[in-house]
Amino acid sequence: MPPGLVSNLQEVLLSRKGDSNSDSNAEQEQSSEAPEPVEFDESKPVVLVTNSDGVDSPGLTHLVQALVQEGLYNVHFCVPQSDKSASGHSVTLRETVEAASAKVSGATGFEISGTPVDCVSLALSGALFSWSKPMLVVSGINRGSNCGHHMFYSGVVAGAREALLCGVPALSISLNWKKDGSQENDFKDAVSVCLPLVNAAIKDVEKGTFPKNCFLNIEIPTSPLSNKGFKLTKQSLLRSTPNWLAVSTSRYPPGHFMANQVGLGLQIAQLGRDASAAGAARRLATQKKNLEIVESTGAAGKSDPNSIKKYFRLEFLDKEQEEVDEDLDYRALENGYVAVTPVSLSPRIETDIQIAASDWVSAVLPGEK
C-alpha cells in the first residue's frame, strides 16, 4: 500500500487535540446547525453507515456528520428503529419489515424495524436505495467494546459481517464506553481518531488494495484522544459469563408500578400477539407516504392459559482473563491502543488474512505497531 495515504495520522490527531479547546465554541455552533441533505453525486463513492443502537445514537450522528463534511462521498445510513445491541447475526423472518425514511446530519437513510443484519441486507438488496453496492459499509460507532467472543453477540459487528457476506468491504467500530467515566462527546473524539482510517479504507477499496476476505473490527479506547496509536491485533477468547436472573412472574422488578399486575400483564401480552398482524397493517397504512415496504408474512401467536410461565433477565458478568498475549484485541485496548482486528469468515485462511491485513495497516499507518 502507498505509505503516504495516512502518513500524517499522528499529526492530525495532535493538531485536533491541541485545537480542541480553542475551537470548542465554534464546533458547538456548527453542531447546532444540521447541514442540509445533499443531492446524490454519481461521481462520488457510496458509503453506507449502520449500527445496532438506532438513529439517535451519538456514535452514528457524529460519524455521519464527519463523513458528510468530508464532501467526498454519498453518505447513506440504514439503522434499526430501536436498540438491537447483542442481537448477533439474527434476521427477521415471517414478519413484515418497515423502512421509514429519515435524515441525520445531512445524510438520508432509513430506520428499519429489524436487526442490524436486516438493515445491511435490505440496503444491499437494491430494493431500498437507488444503488445496491456501496464502496464501504461502516458499522458503528458502538457504545461499548466488542472484543473476543463478544463479537458473536454483537449487533454492530454482525452488520459488518453481513456486508462482507454480500461481497462489500466493511469496518465495525466500537468505543470502550465506561458507564461512570465516559461522556457523549467521547464519540466525537472517537470519530476524529478513526476517520483517517475510514478514508484510507475507501481509497484502497477503489484501488483494489484493501484486504480481501475479511472485515476490520476497530476498538477505540475509553479516552480516544489519549490513545497510544493503532495496533494490529488478534481476536481473543474474551468472554463474559452469562448470568440469568429469575424475575417476578409479572416480568417487572419489585417496586415497579406494574409488578402486581400479573393478570393484566398477561392479557396485554396476549392482546398484543393477537393484534400484531392487524396493528402492523394499520401502521403501514398511516405511514405510507414515508415508508418503503418489504412484503413478508406473519402469524399471530397462540397461548395456553394453563401453561406455567417463568421470566428471566440476562446479564453478563466480567471474569478474569488468563490470556497474556499483548497482541490480543482486549489487551491492546486495555493498554490504550486502538485495536484493529481482521475478522475472517473462514478460519482456514486466518494466517493469510492476518498477513494481508498487517501489510495494509503497516502501509496506511506507518510507524504503528
From TrEMBL:
Asked if the Swiss-Prot or TrEMBL record annotates the protein with the keyword Hydrolase, the reply is yes
Domain Survival protein SurE-like phosphatase/nucleotidase, by residue range, is 47-236
**Sequence ranges of Polar residues compositional bias:** 21-33
Chain intervals for the UniProt region annotation (Disordered) = 14-43
Keywords attached to this entry: Hydrolase, Metal-binding
Taken from the record, one Pfam family name reads SurE
Q: Which GO terms describe its molecular function?
A: metal ion binding; nucleotidase activity
InterPro entries, sorted: SurE, SurE-like_Pase/nucleotidase, SurE-like_sf
What superkingdom heads the lineage?
Eukaryota
Q: Of which family is this protein a member? A: Belongs to the SurE nucleotidase family.
This one is known as Survival protein SurE-like phosphatase/nucleotidase domain-containing protein
